[in-house]
Amino acid sequence: MWPVDAESLRETQHGLAAARPRPWQAEPAGARISGCWACFPRGLSGRGGTHDPAWAASVVLVGGRVVDRSVVEGYAGAPYTPGLLALRLGPLLEKVVRSLAAPPDVLLLDATGRDHPRRAGLALHLGAELDVPTVGVTHRPLLAEGEWPADVRGAVAPLRIGREEVARWVRTQPGTRPLVVHPGWRVDLDQAVAVVMAATASRRTPEPLRRARQLAREARVDQPHASPKLSPWPPTE
Questions:
Q1: DSSP E strands: which ranges in the chain?
Q2: Rounded-to-integer distance, Cα 6 and Cα 196, Å
Q3: Backbone angles phi, psi at 53, to 5 degrees
Q4: Residue 234: cis peptide before it, omega within 30 degrees of 0
Q5: pLDDT value at position 230?
Q6: Average pLDDT for the chain
């Protein structure tokens, strides 16, 4: 069960930060790597609100080929508050991942892990709920600080809170802004970087996450209470 208020979520996060689940041992090459993404109606501003309509998508790739995908429609559970993203999106993202034909080997999402006031962002929390290894991928850190890496594909640089390395800058493509890679549930820093690089082709964003973002936006409609319209599956091209 997902917490329904800030106090209970903070308590859950403290517990997750202290948890020591069995580490993920598989190699990213050949793994079923999924990305999940949620979006809201166009024109929302600020923190948003409880019950904002939302569309979530999850796409699974193996070796660059889409093998599964899912879209669900739902509602935000709360306004956006830094450090409490699980209240807004946790149940919806869990629902879309569980609606896949089979669980992914590892899941990418736009959320933090240890770079968090209580060291347990949504990337860690969602993985614990699903018992699926997870990696967070964001455009900027939440609390951590560190210099950018060299402008070379695969270059990394630490992001720290105090002396603790909680995430890494990763340059997925030269000439572009690096991404922040966050270890989530059952995944350490080295594995998190390896998963992101294995899932990244010619674009800056890892392909499963990019595909999920695209699918969620395609499902979104201008009328906030209409059902999303999905393109046929399997794809015809």
A1: 33-39, 53-62, 65-75, 106-109, 134-138, 156-161, 164-170, 179-183
A2: 31
A3: -60, 145
A4: yes
A5: 40
A6: 92
